[in-house]
């Protein structure tokens, strides 16, 4: 089944590239506007294939244990700040309000780069799918806080939501709730599988709640880093990226 899914995911864009390339070869290339249009499609589809292959290789390494994790105390506010700097321009272009904040200090035992990858996937997904909403508020709120001895990372969006019958398959490889929306935002169907695998490698638990028409909330529960030297307490919230 896995080989079948991979073959299907690659065959579709390859067929598209072949079709447009063939059309260009048969054309006299005098219509520069049409040529540019076809080349843009080829570039876009090629980029999607690259993302798919990269995600496949990444997921395979993560699940096989071949990926080395460099564990150390990680400040989640720094993770969120890195993600904000990457996603905020995209959110702005999509017309989505992005708000990220956390109460310092929130330290977990983890791999900084992989935590950035996990948080980036969740926030990026939230922004992209919220942008497909036809009307109403378009907002994504990500925050990190402590609750009952756990460090919780949460991302909440006002997007289209996930139908109840699709929720049980959400973390499956290649599963996409709405294929039309996924094609529009360039989804590969592997992002949440990667998120789940990274969370598991950190002994973290991931949950979500969703309602169609109202949005989705993902939460990742980490064990608090127990050997940290706690700095002086503060009640101020840090606006990430501000």
TrEMBL record:
Residues 5-226 form the Histidine kinase domain. Its EC number is 2.7.13.3. It comes from the Bacteria. It comes from Fervidobacterium pennivorans. PROSITE patterns: HIS_KIN. It is a multi-pass membrane protein. Signal peptide: none annotated. This is histidine kinase. It is found in: Cell membrane; Membrane raft. Keywords: ATP-binding, Cell membrane, Kinase, Membrane, Nucleotide-binding, Phosphoprotein, Transferase, Two-component regulatory system. GO terms for cellular component: membrane raft; plasma membrane. It catalyses: ATP + protein L-histidine = ADP + protein N-phospho-L-histidine. InterPro entries: HATPase_C_sf (IPR036890), HATPase_dom (IPR003594), His_kinase_dom (IPR005467), HisK_dim/P_dom (IPR003661), HisK_dim/P_sf (IPR036097), Sensor_HK_Regulatory (IPR050736), Sig_transdc_His_kin-like_C (IPR004358). One of its GO terms (molecular function) is phosphorelay sensor kinase activity. The lineage of its organism: Bacteria, Thermotogati, Thermotogota, Thermotogae, Thermotogales. Pfam families: HATPase_c, HisKA.
């Amino acid at each position: 089944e896995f080989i079948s899914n991979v073959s299907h995911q690659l065959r579709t864009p390859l067929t598209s590239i072949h079709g447009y390339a063939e059309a260009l070869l048969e054309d006299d290339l005098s219509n520069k506007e049409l040529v540019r249009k076809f080349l843009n499609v080829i570039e876009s589809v090629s980029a999607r294939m690259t993302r798919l292959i990269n995600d496949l290789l990444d997921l395979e390494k993560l699940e096989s244990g071949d990926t080395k994790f460099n564990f150390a105390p990680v400040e989640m506010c720094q993770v969120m700040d890195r993600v904000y700097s990457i996603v905020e321009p995209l959110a702005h272009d999509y017309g989505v309000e992005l708000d990220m904040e956390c109460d310092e200090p929130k330290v977990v035992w983890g791999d900084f780069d992989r935590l950035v990858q996990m948080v980036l996937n969740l926030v990026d997904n939230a922004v992209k799918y919220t942008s497909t909403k036809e009307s109403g508020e378009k907002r994504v709120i990500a925050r990190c806080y402590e609750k009952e001895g756990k460090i919780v990372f949460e991302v909440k969006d006002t997007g289209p939501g996930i139908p109840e019958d699709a929720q049980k398959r959400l973390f499956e490889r290649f599963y996409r709730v709405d294929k039309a929306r996924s094609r529009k935002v360039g989804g590969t169907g592997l992002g949440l599988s990667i998120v789940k695998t990274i969370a598991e490698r950190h002994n973290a638990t991931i949950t979500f709640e969703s309602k169609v028409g109202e949005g989705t909330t993902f939460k990742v529960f980490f064990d608090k880093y127990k050997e940290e030297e706690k700095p002086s307490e503060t009640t101020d919230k840090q606006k990430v990226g501000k």
